[in-house]
Amino acid sequence: MPPLEETLLAAALLLLAALSLFDRHLVRACSWFVTFALVVALAWARLGLVWLALLELVLGALLTGAFLFHALGMTPLVRRPRGFFARWHDPLPLTWRLALARLLPALVVLAMLGVALAALGEGVGSLRPAGFVLLGLGLWAFALHRHLLRRLLAFNVIGTGIFLLLMSLAEPAALPAAHGLVITGLVVALLGTALGALLVRRLEALEARHGARARTHGHPA
Amino acid sequence: MIERLGLSPATAPLEHQAALWVVLGLPLLLGALGAVVRPARTWPVVVAGMLPLLALGWLFAEVAGGAGRSAVTEFGPLTLHWRINGLTLLLLLLSGVIALASAIYAPAYLREDVEASSRGQAWFWPLLGLLSSSLMLIWLAADLLLLYIGLELMGLTAVGLMLLPGKAEALVAGLRYLLLALVGSLAFLLGVALLLGAWGRLDLAGLAEAAEPGAPLWVAVALLSGGLLLKAAAFPLHAWLAPVHASAWIPVSALHAGLVIKASFFIALQLWLLLVPAAALAAWAMGGLAGAAVIWGGVMAWRSVKLKEMVAWSTVSQLGYLLLAFPLLVGTGSAVADLAWQGTWLQLAAHGLAKAAMFLAAGNLILATGESRVEGLAGASRRFPISLLSFGMAAISLVGLPPSMGFTAKWLLLHAALAGGHWPWVAVLAVGTLLSAAYVFRIFRYCFIEDAPEYEFRRVPLGMDAIALLLALAALLLGLAAAWPVTLLRGAGGEP
Q1: Do B23 and B59 form a contact (C-beta atoms < 8 A)?
Q2: Which end of chain B is more exposed for a tag (fewer CB within 10 A), N or C?
Q3: What would the pLDDT profile of B281-326 be if each residue is shown by its tens digit?
Q4: Which chain A residue lies closest to B223 (C-alpha atoms)?
Q5: Does a structural domain hold residue B174?
Q6: Which of A142, A149, A156, A181 would best serve as a mutation to test chain B binding (most B beta carbons within 10 A)?
């Protein structure tokens, strides 16, 4: 039976992840994500992985959050999101075809992973189930949304789920290698989010310019 | 297979590790220098670009004559593993040559292409350096942590390079590429996590010994190959490739189709050979995908409207030949595997050179005519004979006609398939050759239209034509000198 504190932490993680993935309001979703990253940092710190906690704080919460809000066109001065990405609504209605094409691969991956994890034996604590559920939530969100920002959020949540799984699977002798993997993964997640955010801004700028040109030339956009 | 991949525990350690660091670091350094200087002329790039090849020469001298070398780097509590053998040297040389060709082509191309934004140009050189370094890292790495770092570095820089044109189409295609690359890297990381959890180590040689068949191994290999094949644009996961190439800069396309896609394939094949060397049934399924890739890619290349689209689809088709390595190498006898081993790496080298040459030649044709559609090439035979000659020579290697390197490679693959009695793969090779002949000759049909109206056209700088011609010549004539890479593959890799 894992201690109460740990169970609470895992439940908080899952709740925050679900909120950040499925909140209809994008700005709120991004704020939930930053809170989620902070709780992840707290979880690492509790496990005695101070370096990882610091990295998660700086890369996962601060910088990723900054890029997410940049993608929404928000700065400390401008509090209202701009651009069409902020107004674009999802999720898609779930049709059979969509369910087959997108959800099925996600479910297959989860089932395979479940089988493999069962064969690897019981883990200690709630790290492993938490990671597994985070992975499932992220895959679900990734399959259902087409909005780029929501997909980036889902990507980050899946990544965190994998990190939790990785640390729960690693034996003490394999910890340095696991640290190396997680640190690389954190940097990759940040760079991917940053690239995506910059792309969103650039696309919006092009859209705006194109729209303006179309208006001056009399062509409807 | 462990010996062939240069991972046997008996390999002697590398004497001067500095050679390794120079080979890995020099492209990065030159890229940073390029960001500061921003070369507008060709000759400084030629001079600077020779340096990484000289560094490679040093590494060749270090390894010469032996059965490969291994190296270990201690980084605090972390141990990183490296290996260098004949195969590695061949791949290092290939990536050095193609990267150099793209770099030499770039200054003139960026000057000529009026649409190239200057903001994009500033990023080109450091990203090119980073991409070359990450490729070298992937060829040399002998543990999964290094491979993960190299793969991610390569994937993100490749996305960055594809985005440089800054136009809306490039951005939309790049966005899709970014998401797929991220999904691929998540699958890869999950697979690595399972392997680490099950056997507690990441070095390839150790994993090959420790791994036991069972659910964790199968799931891990499935996840790893899924992620890698997505990044390699293997058959059902190839849809992102053509749009990405359609709007990218020419030297970037050449580098991407010639090397980046192959790196993911290289990692996937290596993992299969080490972790599941007897999984013949799964390998046959991969062979089915290979056949589908060859046929579908060929048909789409034949039907494509734009010249670059045709070259990109032909990459999907040619990658199918490489995927044949799975059924021919996994779970087959040593006679078949021996032939297929040589055929696969020769095909990789031949396709890398030929495809890079073809992209550069196609870029010259597009710049000269100002027309990206295939129909725009009407009358090209009289106006741009040199560009068309390079295109044709690259095409000969792609189709696999003698004396090209592509012919030698396909000949070896065909022999392997015949020796093992794998009739379906023989059929795939035959159909693929016919299809590639069809899509290549379709281009020539337009080029040799004599009564085409005289549109205005631009003359392409001689240097750009020369570099495409040299690469195409290499792809064509190396078939005659194929004995050298084969000895390299055999000799330094150790006889199995």
Answers
A1: yes
A2: C
A3: 999 999 999 999 999 999 999 999 999 999 999 999 999 999 999 9
A4: A109
A5: no
A6: A181
Residue A126 has pLDDT above 90, yes or no: no
**Gap between the Cα atoms of B456 and B368, Å rounded:** 9
pTM for the complete prediction? 0.94
| Number of domains forming the structure of chain B | 1
* A48 Rama class: left (phi>0) / alpha (psi -120 to 50) / beta: left
Residues 6+ apart with CB under 8 A from B118: none
CA-to-CA dists, residue A189 to A212, B68, B169, B224, angstroms:
35, 36, 24, 18
pLDDT tens for A39-68 read: 999 999 988 889 899 999 999 899 999 999
Q: Is residue B487 part of a domain?
A: yes
Identify the band that residue A16 occupies on the pLDDT scale cut at 50, 70 and 90: very high
Taking contacts as CB-CB distances below 8 angstroms, the residues of chain B near A173 are: 200
> Hey, CA dihedral for B411, B417, B418, B420, is it positive or negative?
positive
**Average per-residue pLDDT in chain B?**
90
Q: In this structure, is residue B216 part of a structural domain? A: no
Is B187 domain-assigned?
no
Per the CB < 8 A criterion, the answer to whether B290 and B338 are in contact is: no
Measured CA to CA, the distance from residue B101 to residue B390 in angstroms comes to 14
